[in-house]
Amino acid sequence: MPRHTIIPSRVLIVISTVVVALVLLLASSVQATPELLETSDYKVRAGDNLWEIADDVTPEGRDVRNTIEAIKRLNDLDSSVIHPGQLLEVPVSIQR
């Protein structure tokens, strides 16, 4: 006679809870980026930093960190370090 394995209901509840928690964690980590329609070039000047550059092009009420990440992606930057004379492609956003 074949043995049927029965998973106790507590184990199913724990597994279900973990799956739901992981889905919620993944959903909360996805951040919307500002609506980017086009880009323009920006030549880095002495004293510039990525935060200020991103802040200048981020629509009011939006998260500057998302714009920083977009600039890093557009320019294949591994960090936020920039240098005078460097040419960056920066997003141009529509203010709504």
Q: Can you put this structure into words, describing what you see?
A:
- The protein is an alpha+beta fold and about 100 residues long.
- It has a domain at about 35-95: LysM domain (Membrane-bound Lytic Murein Transglycosylase D, Chain A), CATH 3.10.350.10.
- The chain has three helices and two strands.
- The protein has helices at about 10-30, 50-55, 65-75; strands at about 35-45, 85-95.
- It has a two-stranded antiparallel ribbon with strand order 1-2.
- The termini are far apart.
- Residues about 30-35 have low confidence and may be disordered.
Keywords, separated by commas or semicolons:
2 strands; rod-shaped; 3 helices; Membrane-bound Lytic Murein Transglycosylase D, Chain A; alpha+beta; 96 residues
Topology order in helix (H) and strand (E) letters: HEHHE
Biggest beta sheet attributes: 2 strands, antiparallel
Structural class: alpha+beta
CATH homologous superfamily grouping of the domain at 36-93: LysM domain
**What is the strand content?**
15-25%
Counted by DSSP, the helix tally is 3
Q: Give the helix level as a range of percent.
A: 40-55%
The overall pLDDT average reads 83
Rg result: 23 Å
Tell me which CATH architecture of the domain at 36-93 applies here.
Answer: Roll
Low-confidence stretches: 32-36
CATH class (first level) name of the domain at 36-93 = Alpha Beta
**N-to-C span:** 70 Å
